[in-house]
Amino acid sequence: MKSIKVKCPASLSNLVCGYDIFGMAVEAPYDILELKNTDGEGISIQHTDDYGLSTDPSKNIAGVALQSMVSELKLKGHFEIIIHKNIKPGSGIGSSAASAAGIVVAANLLLGLELTHQQLLTFAMDGEMIASGSRHADNLAPLIYGGMTLIRDTDNFDIISIPSPPLFITILHPQIEIKTSYAREILPKEVPLKDAVKQWANTAGLVAGFLQNDYALMSRSMQDFIIEPVRSKLIPAYDAVKKESMHCGALGGGISGSGPSMFMFSKDEQKARAISDAMCKVYNSTGIAYKTYVTSINQKGVTVV
Ligand code: HSE
Prior knowledge:
The chain is of the alpha+beta class. The protein has helices spanning 61-73, 95-110, 117-132, 140-145, 180-185, 193-211, 215-221, 228-231, 238-247, 269-284, and strands at 2-13, 22-38, 41-47, 77-84, 148-153, 158-162, 168-174, 252-255, 262-266, 290-296, 303-304.
């Protein structure tokens, strides 16, 4: 029997101005995924968490991604997947991507397949597809490439790794669920040109800010004229959390992915912790359960434990 255990980090996507094109792996929280390959055939799945996810391989994200690899590459043997999920599904911090990227990286390493990043991403996207109903790679790419990634073209897998200056990240995860498919459905189908101009200026500004270690430029660029006005209404106390975080010295931030999680970037850890305290204060008044994390960028993506 061969077996492997990998750590599958959470990820932020969109990074405020870059809907579907920016993603970033973070150090916390993360899932642990084990994969065993024995004699026989088929895939079996076990979840050690209480999230009630399907263990039917055709309905489980990791199962679908692995099945796609098994069929395409004609992999042999029985595969047993054991998932210890800490990233709550529907959190906006890449719970489904952690399973999809985790399983393909695990299988690649376990079987010594030496697949390219692009090949891994293709298989992972087959799994991610069943969670959101669309093929987008902004949570997956950083888990495979590490760090921050720009998805310039999803269809042709044109993925660019963006180097980053040191950053601290505060995440607030209200314990409510927002379905990605719903959060995508409610978005406008068309965008006024004047908003599009502001938005693409900000995406270019954010990349330039990261490349030049220019925190002020990063801060100015983290504005969203298209997605935030619609989705922020789904998140209780969104404006108050953002306002208090900015008062504490956040560089900027907003909704992670399709929410409900929110994130804020800071230059130093002390500010990131002050932001966490401020977020807790706001959320304590809502009566909604929540979790916060003070973390940093994960530069390696999915790794062996
Ligand atoms: N970019 C995607 C969205 C991420 O915002 O819908 C979903 O997790």
